[in-house]
Every structure is written in structure tokens, then in C-alpha cells.
Design a protein that fits this description.
The complex is a heterodimer of chains A (about 575) and B (about 270). Chain A is of the alpha+beta class and about 575 residues long. Chain A has 26 helices and 19 strands. The chains are: A alpha+beta (about 575), B mainly alpha (about 270).
């Protein structure tokens, strides 16, 4: 066979292959093209996540990744992510519209937990820096295994942060994290029912984390974690138990909850919660809202953010004039001037609530009380957990919430006692007088290989306990209650100008490694016993204590602000000093 | 044998050119990745022509190497100097066409390969000034697209024309080249695109650049790697000019062996 014949035969065979190939291709069915992506070929019946992200517009791949054009499962599901709201995915899938929020939340304290970590390191004497921004992301990169504070943080605190891996939790009731889902998700995906998301964040989502430490979420609802007795029994079972088994007493809830049924988001703005983009050191720097923002509001025409947020909320009419926060000028789109007053529309359901304006009565306007934070008088109680006994077993093992595995070292936590009544007062982070409670009083015992080490780090912290009542604490409650003054529980006396105090609690007799009462923030001489975690925060000094207690002499007779002496207190004071008042007539 | 290979190489160029023409009309540089995926999964016969373009180009590269090897194995080179050098230019054009085609698929590996190329160019004297010819800050793929569909094919076509004085292939070889490409696309799946967010341990560029990638990982300087990559083309061009052809051929074989070894180092 010559070359020409061979070439001809080869060409003929090749032609056959070409025809066969094209025919084979033609035999395959043409793909049925669906909109907005080919995921709809199988998932067209998937429900919407919310009204802002309808499936018929967004499809699946826009958020979940994968191949939006592929018509077979294998190729379509390549690179798919189950939860695109985790921050590392959100930055890829959601940045087209939400880049600002992703940056803000990534830098926020609820993601970094740097506030907790740095206060812990400071109080445990491992750092002299109170304003560090080292947080979870930094610990993931570089973990100092010799740091007790970091060890404790990883084992006991780091479970709660926005971007915690939600799959590490065994119990769905206690699952936290998941990025945006942590707050915004209201139900999980089930079959063709996609998980639902909302900007009307239910308080239950906040309570997943805000139920321990200073327990704000619980206190707001009138729940005070008790000593664990669980009594009285009800129908053969413990009464008043939380889902995690902790017992509680039902105390007066915050008035905003009890009377208004308000959720956390009715006060806390999106910027206050998700951050303003800066890496803040402490909660109060990131916080946006103040009581005055609603009770002596500033109104202005609604801005574009207010309109967007109202539209997302779906429960209230388009805003025209609204309130704005005094700190960050965030729109309070649900706070509106109406009917010669102020109306707050509850975000959950749009119910109108009438807001009481702050009165101009002497108790608010008198110069003598200008240093008082609202919470100093209106917070009726505060959960105060005294004596946090931290026991560390170096050879034990415990789950590490940063490394997400069981690692060496185990912490166990016990406490001395809990109290709710008469929260101490002191000078807070805002240089105003506010409630203080233990935060934290650590008495540590470290069981190492062949030795036992001990340390203690006693601190008090000031915060708004979220137990606001319309009626304030009484004059006596502040001016002659040693617990409120920060002296601790005991007998307070004033005799011939001398103030004396006999405490009930004797630390030394209880085996504590210090000689002051565990519930004492300060001595009558003004010596501060316990540290705080803010430069500005402190107990009352000697002069302040004396001024407060000496006022008790007046309060004995003039125990109400309706008393005439408070109409012009400075004038009354001058008259008193000249001994021209009725006090001297008998 | 030598003639068969030459004709088949030319035929594969023509098959690659025409299948590329079809793909070109479905490609949009401003939505590069999306248009490639749309072509692959949704356009009727889109995947067929994309694979035909891919396999015919890969065969072209393979046949080109065989063609060069056969010509170098001959005792004497029966070709004018200019024609030979234009052949080398054509070979370089094929490599650049293959690389720009790899970039144009716009998946993760393509983006990574483009970044490596930009870095190599940026850190190499002389080449750094030419970086603007391929890098576009507005639309990443526009300049690659122009190079791939206009400039490089023209350069290759001109190189072939000056190399062999004609461009038209013989029909039987064209049929065989087409059939060969179709047969392979029916039997072997084309490497899957790595979608932008897919987690992969190791991204790789086109197979003929694996060696360069590994050399970069060995922390050889960028300009050194660029220099190494130009060696075979310089040697090929010099062979026709130099009297010491055997030495240059030996150097080329040595380079090929070493580069192959370095290319496969990642797998070992």
C-alpha cells in the first residue's frame, strides 16, 4: 500500500470519527436554561431567606458559591459553602453589597473579644496594657501557651464570638457563632425551607452569649441567676430553671422589657452593635446609645440609612423625622415625634410605645446629682457574683474554643456567693457615678505537676445592669447603705462627725488570701481595696464618702424630693449653714 | 515521517485557529469567567468547541516539539537561516498563545498564573517596561484577549509563512488533525476549571510552566527564571547560525532534561 492510499484511508477513518463525535454531542439533550442560575434546575422550590434576598433574583450561587452555570451536581457543587455568612466567606460572597458592614463587624468587639482578653491579661498581671486590640484572630495566629490568661480565655471565654465555628457545638440550644447568622438567623434550613434572616433581631439571639459574666441579657428580663438550689419545687421539679440548668429568681425586669416588651435592638443601634469600623478597646467606646437619646431626643429629617433600615424592618411607615443618637449620630428610625411627644415603634412588630420625656424636676436638674449616671438611681438591682474561684489543673484536658479541639489544661470555676440587692456605686468609666459589681474577683489555685500555686486578682467593674425602673433607689439607699457606698455589708454609724463601719464578712476567717471583706470596694477611710479595669473607674474617695454620708443627716427628715428644701437646694444650704432653718429651732 | 509530522503540525494549527474562532465569539473579556462557564455548560456545542480548541492546541504544542526534535536529529539543516529563525519565532508564539489561552479561562489557576507572569515580568530588567502591554488595570482580560486573538496568531501565521512559504494545510492532514482532537475529547475529560472560591491546596499554571513555578519556589530570582525560560529559544535560533551545532544541541537536550526534572519535582 503506497502512502497516498494510506493517507486516504486514514482520512476516511478520521472523517468517521468526526461525524461520530459530532453526532454523539448532538445526541445529548440541550440544557434547559434557568434563571438566575442553573442551581434552579434542582432548587427552584427553595424558599427565600428574607424579602431583601429573594431566591428568584439572587439564586443560590451568588451567596453559596459553586458553579452557577453547571447543570450537573458534581460541577455545580464544587467550591460550595454551607454558611456564606461566616465572615471569611462573607467577605467573598457578600462584599459586593455589604463590604462596609463586613469590615465593621470584623473589627468589632463581638468578633475580636479583645476587651475581655485584655482586661483578663491586665487583671491577672500579665499585661500593663489596658488598651490593646489583640483578640481572637491574633491568638489564632500566635498563641502564648505559657499565658494563664490566654489559656483561660481559650477554654472559658472564647466560645462566644460572632464568627465562632457553629459546628463545634453539640447542643443546638447553646450553639453560637456562624458569622452574620449568629444574630440575624431566626430559623435553620429544613428541606426546601431556607434558613430565615432578619434585621429584627430577636433578643433570644443576643442571650445566646449575654447570659453570663455581667448577665445583662438575663437581668433585663428580670432573671437573677441564683445559688443553684432551684427551690421552691413546683410539681415535683425544680422551679425557675434556665435551659442550661441554672436556677434563677424572678426579680423585677427592666421597665423597657416589663412594660414595653422591648428587645435589645430597640435601644442598641446597628453601629453600636456591629461597630463603626474602628478597633475599640472596651464596650463603652463601641456603644452608641444613651438613655437621653430617647428620653430627651434630638430629631432631624430621616437620612438614607434610616430609610433603608425602615424598609428592611417592614413593620413601620416610611420615616420623615426621626431621632438620632448623640454619640455617633446613628438614625433611630423607629423614634419619631408624634402627638406632641415621642413615639418609639417596637422593631419586632411595629407596636407604638409612648416614650416618657425626662422631667426637669430637682432630682434631675440639681447640680449635686449631675455626676450621677441614670443607672446609679434607676438600676434597681445588679447581679453580683462574689469570689470567683478559678481552679486550674495543668494535667487536665479541656476543649479549647480557639484551636477547636481538646487540649492540655483544665479550668473549673466556683463562686463564694451571689447577691442582687443594693449594688455598690463608684466612679465609672464615664467619670460618672454608676453601679459596680465584682468583675471579676479571681481567687486562683493552680495545680501544676508537683506543686500548687495560688494567686488572686480582685476587681470591681462598673456597668449599667439593665434593671431600670421608673422609681429610683431611695435617698437612704444611697446615702446610708454601706453596700451601696462600696463599703460592703455591715453596720455603718456616724457619731459626732466620725463615720465607722463594722463589716459582716471576715475574709481572713474564711481562708481568703486578703484581709478586707470580699464585698468591700473601699474602706471608710477611702482606701480602695479592689482594682478596676478602666483608668477612670474607681471607688468613692474619703471626701466623697463623707459628703454622701453627711447628707444623710438632712435626708433623715427631708427624704423626698417633693420636700421644699430641694426647690432651691443651694439657697437651703446657705440658710442651713447660717443656722436659719427650722432644724435649729428645737 | 518528518513530512507527516510537519503537515500534521500545520493542520493542528489550522484546527486550533478555527475552533478558537468559534470560542472567540462567545468570550467576553469583561465577564471572562462567566462567559467561559456559559460557553461550557449552556451554549449549544460550546463545550465541544472549547475542548476541540484545547486539545488541538495541546496536540499542536506536542507535535511542534516532535517536529523540532526530528529536525534537530537530522545531520544537516536544509533551510535558510531566516526561515529557521522565523520557525523559532513561530514556536515562541505557540508557547505564548498557549499561555494567554490558559489565562483567558479566568479561573483560579489562570489568575494565579497571570500573577506569577506579572511578577516575573515586573522583576526582570527590560521585560518590566513591557509589562504594560499585557497588564490592564481596568479590565484584567482585555489585553490578554487582544494578544490571544489578534497579535499572537498574526505573529504565528507570519512566522509559519516565512518558515515554509505557505499557510494552507493539506485536507487529509486537517481531517486527521480534527479527528485526533475529537477522539481525545471524547475519551479524556478536559482539566476542570477551578472556580474562584474553590479551596485547592496547590494552584498550577500550564504544564510547560511548571518548571518555572518550581524554580520560583526554590527562591531563584525572577530575572534568573525568565532567563532560563528563554534559553531554549535562544539556543534554537543560534543552532542555525553557529558552527558548533552539536554543542548547542547538547545544551538544548541538557536544558530539556533539567527543566523536565524540575517540572516534575512537585509530584515527587
Amino acid at each position: 500500500m503506497n502512502r497516498k492510499w494510506l493517507l486516504a484511508l486514514l482520512s476516511l477513518a478520521a472523517l468517521g470519527v468526526i461525524l461520530l463525535g459530532i453526532t454523539w454531542r448532538a445526541a445529548k439533550p440541550m440544557p434547559h436554561i434557568t434563571q438566575p442560575d442553573q442551581c434552579m434546575q434542582c432548587h427552584s422550590d427553595m424558599s427565600d431567606i428574607d424579602h431583601a434576598h429573594p431566591t428568584e433574583i439572587f439564586g443560590c450561587a451568588k451567596c453559596h458559591g459553586g458553579n452557577a452555570f453547571a447543570t450537573d451536581k458534581t460541577n455545580a457543587h464544587k467550591g460550595i459553602v454551607r454558611n456564606p455568612s461566616r465572615l471569611e466567606h462573607a467577605v467573598i460572597f457578600c462584599s459586593e453589597c455589604h463590604s462596609d458592614i463586613i469590615k465593621r463587624i470584623s473589627n468589632s468587639l463581638m468578633q475580636s473579644e479583645s476587651g475581655i482578653l485584655n482586661v483578663l491579661a491586665y487583671q491577672w498581671g500579665e499585661s500593663r496594657e489596658l488598651n490593646s486590640t489583640i483578640g481572637i484572630d491574633e491568638l489564632k495566629q500566635e498563641f502564648n501557651s505559657s499565658s494563664l490568661a490566654q489559656n483561660h480565655f481559650a477554654k472559658a471565654c472564647a466560645a462566644c464570638h460572632i464568627n465562632q465555628d457553629e459546628t463545634v457545638f453539640d447542643n443546638p440550644e447553646t450553639t453560637r457563632g456562624g458569622g452574620c447568622s449568629d444574630c440575624h438567623r431566626t430559623s435553620k434550613t429544613k428541606g426546601t425551607q431556607h434558613a430565615t434572616y432578619t434585621t429584627r433581631i430577636p433578643s433570644s439571639n443576643c442571650l445566646k452569649c449575654h447570659n453570663r459574666s455581667n448577665r445583662i441579657g438575663l437581668s433585663y428580663q428580670g432573671i437573677f441567676e441564683s445559688e443553684g438550689y432551684g427551690t421552691p419545687y413546683k410539681e415535683g421539679n425544680f422551679s425557675n430553671q434556665l435551659a442550661d440548668g441554672r436556677s434563677y429568681y424572678a426579680l423585677p425586669a427592666d421597665i423597657h422589657h416589663a412594660e414595653g416588651g422591648m428587645d435589645c435592638i430597640d435601644c442598641h443601634t446597628e453601629k453600636g452593635v456591629m461597630g463603626d469600623g474602628k478597633k475599640h478597646h472596651h464596650m463603652e467606646e463601641a456603644e452608641d446609645i444613651k438613655c437621653q437619646d430617647c428620653h430627651t431626643p434630638k430629631f432631624a429629617p430621616a437620612n438614607s440609612l434610616a430609610v433603608t433600615l425602615t424598609d428592611l424592618n417592614e413593620k413601620m411607615s416610611e420615616p420623615k423625622t426621626i431621632g438620632f443618637t448623640s454619640k455617633m449620630n446613628s438614625p433611630l428610625y423607629h423614634l419619631r415625634p408624634e402627638h406632641n411627644g415621642t413615639t418609639l415603634y417596637r422593631k419586632r412588630d411595629g407596636k407604638a410605645l409612648s416614650v416618657t420625656a425626662m422631667s426637669n424636676q430637682p432630682y434631675h436638674s440639681d447640680a449635686i446629682h449631675q455626676r450621677l449616671d441614670c443607672s446609679a438611681c434607676h438600676a434597681s438591682w445588679a447581679p453580683s457574683c462574689y469570689g470567683c474561684h478559678e481552679v486550674y489543673f495543668e494535667n487536665g484536658k479541656q476543649f479549647d474554643w480557639i484551636q477547636k479541639k481538646v487540649t492540655k489544661g483544665e479550668w473549673q470555676e466556683y463562686r463564694s456567693f451571689l447577691r442582687f440587692e443594693s449594688p455598690s456605686l463608684g466612679i465609672g468609666y464615664n467619670k460618672k457615678i454608676m453601679p459596680f459589681a465584682p468583675g471579676c474577683q479571681v481567687i486562683g489555685t493552680l495545680f501544676k505537676d508537683k506543686k500548687v500555686e495560688k494567686f488572686h486578682a480582685m476587681a470591681m467593674a462598673g456597668w449599667d445592669p439593665h434593671t431600670t425602673q421608673k422609681k429610683s433607689r431611695t435617698c437612704v439607699e444611697c446615702h446610708f447603705n454601706p453596700a451601696t457606698l462600696g463599703l460592703g455589708r455591715g453596720n455603718l454609724n456616724i457619731h459626732e462627725g466620725n463615720i465607722t463601719f463594722a463589716p459582716f464578712f471576715q475574709s481572713a476567717q474564711s481562708g481568703m488570701p486578703f484581709d478586707y471583706p470580699i464585698d468591700a470596694f473601699v474602706s471608710v477611710e477611702g482606701k480602695q481595696f479592689q482594682s478596676t479595669s478602666r483608668k477612670e473607674a474607681r471607688s468613692f474617695n474619703k471626701g466623697e464618702l463623707r459628703r454622701i454620708v453627711e447628707a444623710y443627716r438632712c435626708i433623715l427628715c427631708h427624704d423626698s424630693y417633693s420636700d421644699p428644701i430641694y426647690r432651691d437646694f443651694n439657697h437651703s444650704k446657705v440658710q442651713f449653714e447660717k443656722e436659719e432653718t427650722s432644724c435649729f429651732k428645737n | 515521517m518528518a513530512r507527516w509530522v510537519s503537515w500534521l503540525t500545520l493542520a493542528l494549527f489550522v484546527v486550533s485557529l478555527f475552533s478558537g474562532l468559534v470560542v472567540m465569539f462567545a468570550y467576553h473579556p469583561s465577564t471572562a469567567y462567566e462567559s467561559i462557564q456559559r460557553l461550557t455548560y449552556l451554549t449549544p456545542y460550546g463545550a465541544f468547541f472549547r475542548q476541540l480548541h484545547y486539545f488541538s492546541s495541546e496536540f499542536l504544542m506536542g507535535m511542534l516539539i516532535i517536529h523540532i526534535t526530528i529536525e534537530l536529529m537530522k545531520k544537516s539543516i536544509a533551510m535558510r537561516t531566516a526561515a529557521w529563525v522565523y520557525g523559532v519565532v513561530g514556536a515562541l508564539s505557540v508557547v505564548l498563545l498557549m499561555f494567554s489561552g490558559f489565562i483567558l479561562k479566568a479561573d483560579q489557576s489562570a489568575n494565579a498564573a497571570a500573577q506569577v507572569a506579572f511578577t516575573l515580568m515586573g522583576e526582570t530588567p527590560l521585560l518590566s517596561t513591557l509589562k504594560a502591554l499585557i497588564q490592564d488595570t481596568v479590565s484584567f482580560y482585555h489585553k490578554f484577549f487582544i494578544w490571544h486573538i489578534v497579535l499572537l496568531p498574526l505573529l504565528l501565521g507570519y512566522g509559519i509563512y516565512r518558515h515554509i512559504k505557505f499557510l494552507s494545510p493539506k485536507l487529509p492532514y486537517t481531517i486527521i488533525a480534527t479527528a485526533l482532537s475529537i477522539l481525545v475529547l471524547l475519551l479524556i475529560p478536559m482539566p476542570a476549571d477551578i472556580i474562584p472560591n474553590e479551596a485547592v491546596k496547590h494552584l498550577q499554571g500550564p504544564w510547560f510552566f511548571w518548571g518555572a513555578e518550581n524554580l520560583l519556589q526554590m527562591e531563584l530570582g525572577s530575572w534568573m527564571v525568565t532567563l532560563i525560560m528563554t534559553i531554549p529559544f535562544v539556543l534554537l535560533a543560534l543552532i542555525i547560525l553557529s558552527a558548533r551545532k552539536t554543542l548547542l544541541k547538547f545544551a538544548l537536550v541538557l536544558w530539556t532534561l533539567l527543566y523536565t526534572a524540575v517540572s516534575l519535582a512537585w509530584w515527587l
